[in-house]
Amino acid sequence: MSRIGKLPVPVPAAAEVHLDGLAVTVKGPKGELSQVMPEGVALDRDDDGAVIVTRLGDEPDQRARHGLVRSLVANMVVGVTEGYVKHLELVGVGYRAALVGRDLELQVGFSHPVRITAPEGITFEVPQPTRIIVSGIDKVLVGQVAANVRKVRPPEPYKGKGIKYEGEHIRRKAGKAAGR
């Protein structure tokens, strides 16, 4: 049995979970998320209101989805109650970010600024010109938008310049050896 899948998903008082077969809808103070779960699992509620995920058989694909579905439901509950945040840093001389309305404008060494439009449900914050905060209620969408921002100018291994996640360690390489 999946160690993750057998754990119940606690539902805080601030959130409401509606189960309709494999469709799950979670409402909370930050918004509402809904998703249809893959087949092979069953969703139910226990006496405390927590969501219980059970698999319908012992096939390998059902066993694989057991923990996945439990994690997806748990991420939805956390998203609508607390939200998700990714922090990015800009490293490089003249590299800076700015907000233009809801969009993010990056100057990262190209001849032109790069503008990234915030999708629905995502907000950008720029507390300093070299820091970017991506936040939202959908964990997957927050991670994908942060990865798209990082992809504009990924950190390079020689000088470490580029856009990186906060706390990410960039392995540095030695430059050319002189005069051999």
Tell me what the structure shows.
The chain is α+β, with helices and mostly antiparallel strands and 180 residues long. The protein contains two helices and twelve strands, in the order βββββαββββββαβ. β2 (23-28) and β3 (31-36) form a beta hairpin.
Secondary-structure topology with pairs:
Layout: E1 16-20, E2 23-28, E3 31-36, E4 41-45, E5 51-55, H1 60-81, E6 84-91, E7 96-100, E8 103-107, E9 114-116, E10 122-125, E11 131-136, H2 139-152, E12 162-165
Antiparallel strand pairs: 1-2, 2-3, 4-5, 6-11, 6-12, 7-8, 8-9, 10-11
Helical residues, percent: 10-25%
The overall pLDDT average reads 92
Instruction: Output the number of helix runs.
Output: 2
Decide which structural class fits the backbone: alpha+beta
**Major sheet strand order:** 10-11-6-12
Gross geometry = elongated
List unreliable stretches of 5+ residues.
none
The SSE string, one letter per element, is: EEEEEHEEEEEEHE
Overall number of strands? 12
Main β sheet profile? 4 strands, antiparallel
Query: Measured on Cα atoms, how large is the radius of gyration?
Result: 21 Å
Provide the β-strand percentage band.
25-35%
N- to C-terminal separation?
60 Å
Provide the descriptors you would attach to this structure in a database record.
180 residues, alpha+beta, three-stranded antiparallel β-sheet, 2 helices
